[in-house]
Write a structure and sequence with these properties.
It is a single chain. The chain is an alpha/beta fold and about 375 residues long. It has a single domain, classed as Glycosidases (TIM Barrel, Alpha-Beta Barrel). It contains twelve helices and nine strands. An eight-stranded parallel beta barrel has the order 1-2-3-4-5-6-8-9, surrounded by five helices. Helix 11 links the parallel strand 8 and strand 9. Helix 6 packs parallel to helix 8. The longest helix is centred in the last third of the chain and has 20 residues. It is globular, with a radius of gyration of 21 Å. The relative contact order is 0.13. The protein binds (3S,4R)-3-hydroxy-2-oxopiperidin-4-yl beta-D-xylopyranoside. The site of (3S,4R)-3-hydroxy-2-oxopiperidin-4-yl beta-D-xylopyranoside has 8 residues, from loops.
């Protein structure tokens, strides 16, 4: 029988009058404790946090979360902006911050088409790099970056977003694929295993809840496994909105990837509450939409009715996650609080989105309490 942690009791007391005799001034429960027996609960964290520019956010992150993903600081353009010139200062500080607070540190990401400098794919005389050149750069990068943190990173998003959103091909048209062919993915996994043999290695992508894209990703990962590529898990980014994807598709997605023998992680969870003109689920960072006042309706705060819908949506999602806790290793939110969310800038710049569990003043939202209640319910004997 699972014993109920004190924090979970606090959450239950909110719901159950029978237990309401708990001390009135209960501290806010901590997600890392509520879900301690289920999965890690993480946040993407920006460089400002360990740099001490935001001590209140640092305290929130340390108290609430059991895993940390540097939001941008391990991407290629940050760690190797110019050939052979590495800058690990921001990444070092984030990794040290995670370790200091007993958090699992996740590496994001080694091979991606975005936030990768143009020189990586360039050859001499304005021509693209040769396959040999690009393979060499991939190896040098993975050796340097994964090698530097060897033994300190729980898992790496080795390849990010290689599957196509549509069209006839399984894989996205990217310079990696154009120059190296489809095998660039397997190569990246083999190099990552060499550089940090104990780290878990993941494939990470968005929109895998959409059946057609999921099918392509399942085929890719099945093939990688059959060929003996060292892949341990799959990250579902989890850029969701109030309606999409239906809970049944999240459920099927976790089940189907886990049936391949892969550990599943929700790696970049947020629930967009703002209207959009673009396709739901396609979290392509290159997507841009022009702004309009009707696309930014909650500048003065989230109306109660929408808060409640957001809370119900998070309860539904965590219901699914908890049902799969045996196969789910981690649920990471893409940002510690609403003010720090990338959804304030994407796909429309300069809006006020409200996609996370903590608001701009770092107060827990109804969605936070709904998530805690879901955890407490699952823990009840
Ligand atoms: C985003 C960051 O949050 C932003 O700060 C940055 O400007 C662009 O990238 N999918 C991913 C993440 O895998 O790396 C992206 O992060 C969000 C979408």
């Amino acid at each position: 029988m699972r014993t109920l942690p004190l924090v979970a009791l606090a959450a239950v007391s909110l719901l159950s009058p029978r237990l309401a005799s708990a001390p009135a001034e209960m501290e806010t429960p901590a997600l890392r404790e509520v879900f301690a027996r289920d999965f890690l609960v993480g946040a993407a964290v920006p460089a400002a946090v360990p740099a001490g520019r935001d001590p209140r956010v640092a305290a929130l992150v340390a108290r609430q979360f059991s895993a940390l993903t540097p939001e941008n600081e391990l991407k290629w353009d940050h760690v190797q902006p110019r050939p052979g010139e590495f800058d690990f200062r921001a990444a070092d500080a984030l990794v040290a911050f995670g370790e200091k607070h007993g958090m699992a540190v996740i590496g994001h990401t080694l091979v991606w088409h975005s936030q990768t400098p143009a020189w990586v794919f360039a050859g001499a005389d304005g021509k693209p790099a040769s396959a040999e050149e690009l393979r060499g750069r991939m190896r040098a990068h993975i050796d340097a970056v994964a090698g530097r943190y060897r033994g300190r990173i729980l898992g790496w998003d080795v390849v990010n977003e290689a599957v196509a959103d549509g069209g006839p091909d399984e894989l996205r048209d990217s310079p990696w694929r154009r120059i190296l062919g489809d095998d660039f993915i397997e190569l990246a996994f083999r190099l990552a295993r060499e550089a940090d043999p104990k780290a878990e290695l993941y494939y990470n992508d968005y929109n895998l809840e959409q059946p057609a894209k999921r099918k392509r990703a399942l085929a890719l990962l099945r093939r990688l496994k059959e060929r003996g590529a060292p892949i341990d898990g799959v990250g579902l980014q989890g850029h969701y909105n109030l309606k999409w994807p239906p809970a049944a598709e999240v459920d099927a997605t976790i089940r189907e990837f886990s049936a391949l023998g892969l550990k599943v992680m929700i790696t970049e969870l947020d629930v967009d509450v703002l209207p959009s003109r673009g396709p739901a689920g396609v979290a392509d960072v290159a997507r841009r939409e022009s702004g309009a006042p009707e696309l930014d309706p909650y500048r003065e705060g989230l109306p109660d009715e929408v808060q409640q819908r957001l809370a119900a949506r998070y309860a539904e999602l965590f219901g699914v996650f908890l049902r799969h806790r045996e196969s789910l290793g981690r649920v990471t939110f893409w940002g510690p609080h609403d003010g720090a969310s990338w959804l304030n800038q994407w796909p429309v710049p300069g809006r006020r989105n409200h996609p996370l569990l903590f608001d701009r003043d770092l107060n827990p939202k109804p969605a936070f309490h709904a998530v805690v209640a879901a955890g407490a319910k699952a823990a009840a004997p």
